[in-house]
Design a protein that fits this description.
- The two termini are 20 Å apart.
- Helix 6 links the parallel strand 7 and strand 8.
- This protein has a domain of 64 residues.
- The chain is an alpha/beta fold.
- The protein has a 6-stranded mixed beta sheet with strand order 6-7-8-3-9-10, sandwiched between helices. A 4-stranded antiparallel beta sheet has the order 2-1-4-5, with helices on one face.
- It binds adenosine-5'-triphosphate and magnesium ion.
Length: 219
């Protein structure tokens, strides 16, 4: 599904944030990505989402070398990925409902065919009442749940979730982790970055740990 080969990343002329990172995420797997603040978790997820280009090495996604893929192909590849950014990146001029429905609209689906699914998911993440509100008036945790709903609504092949429970209480965090696990059972490959070690208790999954720019696998 996703494979990094001797990947190095540095920002500008700075020292390398990631050094010789090698790993493979098997199709259908669930994996945690841990590491202290600043270890490079978000950077690694951005590489996988093709929002950053590695300074060296090779990245294969869906059997394609994304370090060589043309700009024109990027949107098509990205459509197969659900992503929860650490800073949410909701569109402020769209309602919560419209934000969550966006991947379906972009895929050419008709509102009457997805309205029900979007409402059900909003209900599940506890945002039924906020469906018609705009992101700026939502709390941090509500924005985070909207971002999660948007990332999972189209049951993507790959889900990249960056600290997806960082702004919610522990009970809600458990509920969201269950949502990711269920999605994983339906076939979505999940890579979830977190520095919350409590989350790791709720799903039995391998842990990839980033430290000093290197990635180690822990079970
Ligand atoms: N756009 C950027 N320009 C320069 N340096 C950056 C940039 N983005 C990240 N960095 C640096 O790269 C390193 C890794 O950052 P990254 O955001 O990937 O860490 P993280 O593990 O996600 O941290 P956190 O747990 O705080 O979210 C940090 O030292 C950070 O300062
Ligand atoms: Mg981060």
């Amino acid at each position: 599904m996703l494979r990094l080969e001797r990947v190095g990343l540095s920002y500008g002329r700075g020292a390398e944030v990631l050094k010789d990172v090698d790993f493979e995420l098997q199709r259908g797997s669930f994996c945690f990505l841990t590491g202290a603040s600043g270890a490079g978790k978000s950077s690694l997820l951005k590489l996988a989402f093709m929002a950053l280009h590695p300074s060296r090495g090779r990245i294969k996604l869906f059997d394609q070398d994304i370090t060589r893929v043309s700009r024109r192909q990027l949107p098509f590849l990205r459509r197969r990925i659900g992503v929860v950014f650490q800073d949410f990146r909701l569109l402020d001029h769209l309602t919560t409902f419209e934000n969550v429905a966006l991947p379906l609209r972009v895929a050419g689906k008709l509102p009457r065919n997805y309205e029900r699914d979007v409402r059900d998911l909003l209900d599940w993440v506890g945002l039924a009442k906020q469906a018609d509100s705009y992101p700026p008036v939502l709390s941090g945790g509500e924005q985070q749940r909207a971002a999660i709903a948007r990332a999972v609504i189209s049951k993507p092949e790959l889900l990249l979730a960056d600290e997806p429970t960082g702004n919610v209480d522990p009970i809600l965090a458990r509920r969201l982790i269950r949502l990711f696990a269920e999605l994983n059972k339906l076939g979505t490959t999940v890579l979830l970055a977190t520095h919350d070690m409590n989350l790791l208790k709720h799903v039995r999954a391998p842990v990839l740990h980033l430290e000093n720019g290197a990635l180690q696998q822990r079970h």
